[in-house]
Amino acid sequence: MKRFLLKGVIKDKGRSLLPIIVVATGTMLTVVMYSWLTGIMGDSIRMNANFNTGELKVMTKAYAADADQFPNDLAILDADNLLTELKAFEPGVDWVKRIRFGALADFPDANGETRGQAPAIGWAVDLFSKESKEAGRFNLQESIVKGGMPANAGEVLISDELARRFDIKPGDTFTLFGSTMDGGFAFYNLKVSGTLLFGATGLDRGAIVMDIADAQKAFGMEGACSEILGFLPDTYFNSEKALAIKTRFNSQPTLAQNEDEFAPVMITLRDQAGMAEMVDYTDFVSGLMVFIFVSAMAIVLWNGGLLGALRRYSEFGIRLAMGESKGHIYKTLLFEALLIGTIGSIFGTVIGYSIVLYINIHGVDMSGMMQNSTMVMPSVMRTAITPTTYYIGFIPGIFSVILGNALAGIGIYKRETARLFNELEV
Amino acid sequence: MNSKLKRYKIGLCHKVLTALLIGATTLYAAEASSQDGKSILRKIDENLSSRNQIAESSMTIHGRRSSRTITAKSWTEGDQKSFTEYLSPASEAGTKMLKLRGQLWIYTPAADRTIQISGHLLRQSVMGSDLSYEDMMDDRKLSDVYDVNITGRDTLDSRDVIILELTANVNDIAYYRQMMWVDSERYIPLKQEMYAKSGQLLKRAEMKNIKRVENRWYPSLVIYKDMLKEGKGTEFRTNTISFDQQIPEHIFSKASLR
């Protein structure tokens, strides 16, 4: 019976072609839109996590209150000890020390006097340990435009835009001028090993990436760090897991009752500026997209089902007259809808996936629209290919065509067998 | 009818004259207050400003975690030139700062670099203190850059004080408005509050240990508090100071930084 219905769907193009095209189009749009949105928001969330927020972050309470100003005078003092404690507390998380700083990059002339200056935002991370994943998190190797990775102490990477503005080449030196942890003058000479282009306008204006040991020397922070970031083993941010770790850490008796403003406190990615909204927005919009497509396509396919039912009015009449039960006709109608939905969804997913794959590889350059953006967002937008990409289109594709036919097929139960021959003009 | 009109005209004249008299008196009083205020400001300038000065000072910065003291020797000529050499602690010793006609350079032996400080950096804190580079640089006489009004009298630290309200008459100034509690006998401010144009209180300074130095009164301790940041303030002590000395011109040159 199922094979018979499949043959009918394939051979009677008048019955199946239009619904399959509609389902395929809707499925394709769902796949592309979902992947586009997930790509943009997911990249932004991951980039923010890798650069700024981590998925978990430990700071002193005082530092946390003004974290956006990088108040290193309020930093964690015995960082190595706390790092060891955190590794024992939650071994599954990758805990890393970071120093964040704002400073002035001063480029000298031949006499050692100021030739040019620019404000710089700095990241000091573990660049030299073999087990460190920090270079990968910053995508440093792939982001290098000129030169190479720092190989020795005192070598740093600076943004390519900054380097071009002051005609700096790999091998040139400059001075970082800022404040030490105790408020003194921080002057530290550094050598440029390479220049970076992250593809995020907010970062590319004046980023400096250096090894944490250099930053500790430069800012008088030996043994200290601004913050300790934690990265969960999951590919995507796991909000519930992060929250559970944070709650468990902060409720430890030694910390819960500790009123010392320099006691450590843990927060999650969601607790940081704008991130909760970004995560919630991604989830909400993904759900909304699926709902809109299911609703819109259900209406379109309902209409299509009605037209089909009208076209097949005589066929259903004859089948009823021949003694086929109404329930059986309704079941076959729904099964045909399932077949059409599946075929349309397969076509739509294949076409949609092809588009998604193309954009994933080549990306869409949006840098022109982000000239003045300060957000950490990639300027080349890409779609995301996740396990969901492969099945997301089937939800509206199959569900809407079945819903449309189920609604249209209700008419079958309204037919009165006694009037069939009159209706069929037999 | 004519006599009524005459009386009305006379009455009107009296009213106009009375109004003019009150207005003139008020204006005169305000002008007089301003004049008195200006003369007070000039007397303050006579105490605090000089043709040149050489001073040794210590600055104790009370941070949220700890306190530290920095000592320095400075040479100042008028409001255009000054040179400061930091003497201690060891991490700051040898750092030198030169101001020449609105420009500021810092030299540090640690990096062997001379760096110019300009733009928004001038508003940054000096060594984590409650003083900005702008505060350190502005040696102009108060009477040259502020209009003044006397707003009242009070007692502060058992001294009679005149309360002055200063409003800037130039644009390139860190504080648009100041309230100043001035010792009415020695003409030295005992307390200052510095405000932004928006009315926001930015900084507070309290002058202590007023001493007679040569022929003027001078505060040997000033406690600054940046009202926009936490912390317990910065104590600026003038340990020794001498006025109107012979300062060699080479002191105020970039060559003296290294």
For the biggest sheet of chain A, the summary is: 6 strands, mixed, barrel
Helical fraction of chain B: 10-25%
Q: Could you give the order of strands across the largest sheet of chain A?
A: 2-3-8-5-7-6
What is the typical, i.e. mean, pLDDT of chain A?
A: 85
CATH-scheme architecture of one domain in chain B: Clam
Strand proportion of chain B, as a percent range, falls in 35-45%
Oligomeric state as shown: heterodimer
Please explain how this structure is put together.
The complex is a heterodimer of chains A (426) and B (258). In chain A, 52% of the residues lie in helices and 19% in strands. Chain A is an alpha+beta fold and 426 residues long. In chain A, strand 2 and strand 3 form a beta hairpin. In chain A, helix 1 packs across helix 14, helix 2 packs antiparallel against helix 16 and helix 12 crosses helix 13. Chain B has a domain of 152 residues: Lipoprotein localisation LolA/LolB/LppX (outer membrane lipoprotein receptor (LolB), chain A, Clam), CATH 2.50.20.10. In chain B, a hairpin with a 5-residue loop joins strand 10 and strand 11. The radius of gyration of chain B is 24 Å and the shape is elongated. The termini of chain B are far apart.
